[in-house]
Amino acid sequence: MNDLQKELKNFKPTKEFFIGIDSDGCAFDTMELKHKECFCPNTIKYWNLQKISKYARETWDFVNLYSKNRGSNRFLALVKVMELLAERKEVLSRNVEIPDLSELKTWIDIETKLGNPALIEYAKKVSNPVIATALDWTLAINSDVSDMVHGIPPFPFMKESLKIISEKADVLVISQTPVDALQREWDENGISEYVKIIAGQEYGTKKEHLQYAALGKYPADKILMIGDAPGDMKAANENGVSFYPINPGFEEKSWEDFYLESSTKFFNGKYSGEYEKSLTSYFNSLLPENPSWN
Question: How far is it, in rounded angstroms, from Cα 126 to Cα 133?
Fold first, then answer.
């Protein structure tokens, strides 16, 4: 457990309820911009996918935006993209060599805090070319995000929701985005004041965020995770707490419904059960597991 995780562990409740909120694609409409303009171009550049850029883009977007892998940690997403590319007949027919990421997988298997600080330290120890490329790649992404992603407000009804729920609940940002980017985006929009901690990838997994910050401190039926990705729902399920989906493609409607109805049900103890099941069932139907080209 690192110092940031200890910060979550030492967090003490100040309200009766706890609500965790994801950031990219959930609070802010930043997913398309970040992935299409920052993540994918750097993936093509640093992993030498120029010959198959069309298929690299399609595969990257599928994994990170339009599938059940949406919202994954960037290193896990990179591995998944390479695995899918290696199976594509269009790629095989062009005799393109897909990078072997086995060294990166080794790091992923032993590291729980899949962020740049941990990778920087690992790169110093192993002096491996794949790890070095992964580090250059992820730092370039952060640089491009910092340069390009600004001036994007929260989804309509998100800020209004945040104001009302922060009166009754301790609110934390629970994300796999680096903390610096999160802090900048939440500060820029004047909404940092409504949350207790902004937890990014350096704090560990989303499951760990919820576990350390909330479990055993609040009744399970008074803990809610709000997110736009299956990984958010998985983190909630694995901790035995409720999940509210921000549906991809219908984010504004999701926040409006939360503001007008779902938040009240949660605070009144009427959210879990059939009501929650109906919301998560629809959410599950929106994102496929397998790509159309298969």
Answer: 13
pLDDT of residue 256: 98
What's the Cα-to-Cα distance from 219 to each of 205, 210, 272, rounded to whole Å? Answer: 21, 13, 13
**Distance (Å, rounded) from C-alpha 144 to C-alpha 138?**
10
206-226 as b/e: b if 16+ CB within 10 A: bbbbbbbbbeeebeeebbbbb
Residue 219, SS3 per DSSP? coil
In tens, the pLDDT along 26-82 reads 999 999 999 999 999 999 999 999 999 999 999 999 999 999 999 999 999 999 999
Q: Where are the domains of the chain?
A: 3-29+155-286, 31-148
**Residue 126 · residue 155 · CB < 8 Å:** no
Report the C-alpha gap between 140 and 144 in whole angstroms.
6
The rounded Cα 55 to chain-centroid distance in angstroms is 23
Provide the β-strand partners of residue 10. none
Q: 24 forms bridges with which residues in the sheet? A: 28
Structure tokens at 115: 């962020």
Q: Which residues contact 216 (CB under 8 A, 6 or more apart)?
A: none
CA 195 to chain centre: 17
Cβ atoms of residues 101 and 82 within 8 Å: yes
At the topology level of CATH, where does 3-29+155-286 sit? Rossmann fold (3.40.50)
Neighbours of 125 (CB within 10 A): 9
User: How many CA atoms does the CB half-sphere of 174 hold within 13 Å?
Assistant: 30
